[in-house]
Amino acid sequence: MPSVVKAALRALEYLPWAKSIERDARYDLTGSGMSDTVAPWSDDDEAKALADTWAGTLEISELCRRDVRRRAREEFIEVVAARYGVEPARVTPTLGSSLAITHVLMALLRPGDQVVVERPTYEPLHRVPEMLGASVSRLERDAADGWAVRPDRLARLLTSRTRAVILSNLHNPSGVGTSRETLLEVTELAARVGAVVLVDEVYLDYCFSTDAAGSLLPACLVAPNCISWSSTTKCFGFPALRAGWIVTGVPEAARAIRAATDYLHVDEPVSTLLLGARVLRQADRLTAWAERIGDAGREVVQRWITGEPRVSWVPPRAGLSGCIRLPDLMQDVPFAQHLRERYDTQVVPGSFFEAPGFVRLSFGVDPAILEQGLANVSAALDDLA
């Protein structure tokens, strides 16, 4: 009997792939977030010390009682607000950065609105507005320009129907940062047509700062028509919590976003709120550890690239991953398949991020694993040249 169930939702490509690939590659260079903080992958004393701070028994009754939810939610909001230096009325809890995308866009978009989304980018940033009936235009970011956001290109895309401009900072997949000055230009252009600027900042935590004199700032601190979101997943090493937050430039925007909560998860799990707040109280220590790991790995990759003339990259501003350009005419998907099958080494094909001819490579792993993984990439290049 034929099925009467027909999928109306277009399936994503990258996330199903990321969840389906076997994680037993000896040289796994696919990650973009820190390893689980509570289960350190090295014998480093600092990694052990961070894990030890989470040792002990959880009070299950505290995490499963509805009567503590209000207090847990207020506590989480206050901790996020303090981190950004904003009033709590501008903060909305959500379940990870991935849901934050849908959360914000559901609140702000209507079918027929125009949205401008960077390219290349993380797939849901352009798929979700399409799903919600928006018309999506693309703002090209090119490796030849250092993956920079070009306000002049944006100006040619904006219309009276433009409702939002969507970016990532640090850029996913390249790890390049967008400066406060560039963001300010973007927000001014968007404001002229009544649009908001939405920035996925889950990687910005790797170099987070609220110093107005700094070159990088959360978008919500740059202009009133900006909205930022992030989570405990990448920099902090707590992806299993699904603890996320949205911070707006003005409280009015937060009220609209909070109204969308009832369409999604209604209430956040108490465990997510309580443990998420605990993570953010240790943000400085966790960020310092991630910076140490990232700096060491980035140096290894840069040294390899200097000696490997067939590839190139724009060095990431921070974080644990970057975008490696393969030789001309070399296809990234077959290359990644060959690398896995022949050398037990896994990278992410750039095509999943709309960057064909590139691979996203993680350097947030043990240096010995990274060095051998890079040597395997060179060997695979030899095979396919």
What's the CATH architecture name of the largest domain?
3-Layer(aba) Sandwich
Mean pLDDT: 94
Tally of structural domains: 2
Contiguous helical run count: 13
Widest beta sheet: strand line-up: 2-8-7-6-5-3-4
Sheet of most strands: 7 strands, mixed
Low-confidence stretches: none
Distance between the termini: 50 Å
CATH superfamily of the largest domain: Type I PLP-dependent aspartate aminotransferase-like (Major domain)
- Number of β-strand runs: 13
The level-1 CATH class of the largest domain: Alpha Beta
Helix content: 40-55%
Output the structural class: alpha/beta
What key attributes describe this structure?
2 domains; Aspartate Aminotransferase, domain 2; Aspartate Aminotransferase, domain 1; seven-stranded mixed beta sheet; 385 residues; alpha/beta
Task: Report on this structure.
It is a single chain. This protein is 40% helix and 15% strand. The chain is an alpha/beta fold and 385 residues long. The chain folds into two domains: 14-51 and 285-384, Aspartate Aminotransferase, domain 1, CATH 3.90.1150.10; 60-282, Aspartate Aminotransferase, domain 2 (3-Layer(aba) Sandwich). The chain is globular and about 60 Å long.
Topology at a glance:
Layout: H1 14-20, E1 27-28, H2 45-52, H3 60-63, H4 69-84, E2 91-94, H5 96-108, E3 114-119, H6 124-131, E4 135-140, H7 151-155, E5 162-168, H8 180-192, E6 196-200, E7 226-231, E8 244-248, H9 251-264, H10 270-281, H11 283-307, E9 312-313, E10 321-325, H12 332-343, E11 345-346, E12 348-349, E13 358-362, H13 367-384
